Amino acid sequence: MKKIFLPLLLVLVLVSLNAVESKITSVTVYSDRAQITRSATTYLTKGEHKILFDELPQSIEQNSIQANGKGNAILRDVTFKTEQFAQITDETKKALNDELLELQDKKNTLSDKKKQALDEKGVVKSILIKLTSTTEKTENVELDPEKWIKMVEFYRSKHESLDKEIRETDKFVRDINAEIDKIKREIREAGQQAYKYKNMVEVLVDVQKEGNLKLDLSYIVYGPSWRPVYDLRVDSQEKTMNLTYKSNIFQTTGEDWINVDLKLSTAKPNISAQPPELYPHYISIYYPQPARVQSKMSKGKPSYSNQMAFDIEEMSAGASLDELEDIAHSASTVESGATSVVFDIDGSNTIKSDNEPHLVTITIQEFAAGFRYSTIPKHSQYAYLKAKVKNESDYPFLPGDTNIFLDNNFVANSYLKAVAPTEEFWTFLGVDESIKIEYKFVKKFDETGGLFVEKNKKIFEYLIKITNNKKTQEEIVVWDQLPISQNEKIKVKLIDPTYKEDTEILKINEHKYIEWFFEPKPGEEILIPFKYSVEYPIGAQIDGL
Questions:
Q1: Are 118 and 166 in contact (CB under 8 A)?
Q2: Where does the pLDDT of residue 453 fall: very low under 50, low under 70, confident under 90, or very high at 90 and above?
Q3: Residues 98 and 176 in one domain
Q4: Which of 223, 236, 322, 503 yields a CA-CA distance of 20 to 30 A from 479?
């Protein structure tokens, strides 16, 4: 028997299990998950060894686990395991029960105190009743007003103090009840979750030469996310915009990322890499079926829904590893791929697992800015300043909230749409009252052509006035609109301004939005007449006019 089990024992001894201390060295955060890389260095003798990475997060994606490293060894196998272990010890349960008993004792003491106060109130009240009641023996007793006043004062003050004591006791009891509920809940959880699972990964390596081995374990965890946010600082004198591109990072993976190499990716792994397929779209005439009095179970063949098969790429089982080399941290850069961009954040970063926003800076860029005013006097008689900027950086700007500063003064919160490199974008900077806007309704009148005319015509006339009170010549775009007829019997005609086709000064789009462009000089006033007519059949009632 000894000869049979000896070879097996030798094999078990030769494959040693080494639990290593690892630390998170790099993290790439996506919109709804993150790729974590853990690193561990250990000294191993020649032969096969199992390296154990313990206490991995609960939200780990098993199929994403990969291992590689540096050293004189061959990677043989990577195995994911879960192990059940006690979460709450007996000592912890005992401590919770002791705390519960202590709270219940305090509650009983307070209940006794309240009962004593109520009893005392009863005694005081009975004394008062006894003194104020009349009997045959006390009918002729002379009442001393001074004694009665003192008695009333005593009764009032005593009742006030006892009522206060009862209210305070009730408050303490409520607080203790809340603590008791909390302890009872923890005791229930201790019983229901006496055990939990922990995740582990075993890496089997065949060491070719004794020495140090560096292993990197990477995996995906769900939950972490990042959201862009911008500070836009505009200098109206220098005509520049300083853009600070930042990100708020959130994570609750259960492990803190301490001094890690941090990257942010614009990739969306939650969206399928390939578009959905089209299937034939059939239509037919619907014929209602007659109602059945009694139905029987059909015994036809069962139907099967289409199933989609997913091919999972298997992990490479073996790879030769080079000698150990030093790792150098690179400066903040942007790496553009075929479908996404990765921002490599400069330096080391710490992101706690607390679901709080952790702000990091992606980049700071400065661009030349052109300024223009925009106004829609029909809705708001203000001129809104906006800046036009061309993204001349290598960084794509994702949609995000913005904090806007004009000449070092905070002016507004806004929202930046997606902007690709080399793309131009506009940013509104708020109201500038140095440009005065006036919108006047001049008149509305009916125009008829005679006795046999079958149509009504209404004419609307407005006047827009722009005054440049600034010391510089400015650009301004003015917007208004014509009504759009949804009936061929209703005719809308622009009378003033005269329009034939789009020019640099006057444009009209498919929604009948009218756009004027002006460059008023300092102190200049611009008058914009706006007049149109609406013609419709007599007796018709027009909606929206």
A1: yes
A2: low
A3: yes
A4: 236
Nearest residue to 257 via CA among 268, 249, 265 = 249
Which residue is it, tokens 């005081």? 124
CB-side neighbour CA atoms (13 Å) of 48: 11
Q: Hey, what amino acid is at 425?
A: F
Say how many C-beta atoms besides its own lie within 10 A of residue 203's C-beta.
Answer: 24
- Distance (Å) of CA 115 to CA 110, 118, 166, 394, 399: 9, 5, 9, 77, 64
- Tokens read off for 519: 């460059």
Model-level pTM greater than 0.90?
A: no
Quote the domain boundaries for residue 445: 435-537
Distance CA(411)–CA(429), nearest Å, equals: 7
Of 476, 475, 466, 479, give the one whose Cα is nearest residue 515: 479
Does residue 497 have a cis bond before it (omega within 30 degrees)? yes
Is residue 157 one of the residues assigned to a domain?
A: yes
Token readout for 43 is 């000294």
The type of residue at 186 is: E
pLDDT tens track for 363-414: 999 999 999 999 999 999 999 999 999 999 999 999 999 999 998 889 888 8
Tens of pLDDT, residue by residue over 26-49, are: 999 998 999 999 999 989 889 899
Q: Which of 177, 189, 197 is nearest to 80 (CA)?
A: 197
pLDDT in tens, 314-373: 323 333 334 444 333 333 566 655 457 899 998 899 999 988 999 999 999 999 999 999
Determine how many CB atoms are found less than 10 A away from the CB of residue 530.
23
Give me 205's structure tokens.
């390596």
Q: What's the number of CA atoms in the CB half-sphere (13 Å) around residue 492?
A: 12
Helix (H) or strand (E) holding 180, with range, is helix 145-192
For residue 71, the domain's CATH number is: 2.60.40
pLDDT tens digits for range 76-128: 889 998 887 655 556 676 787 888 888 888 888 888 888 888 878 777 777 76
Tell whether 181 and 52 lie within a shared domain: no
- Residue closest to 214 by CA, chosen among 71, 382, 25: 71
Residue 74 makes CB contacts below 8 A (sequence gap 6+) with 205, 206, 208, 318, 319, 320, 321
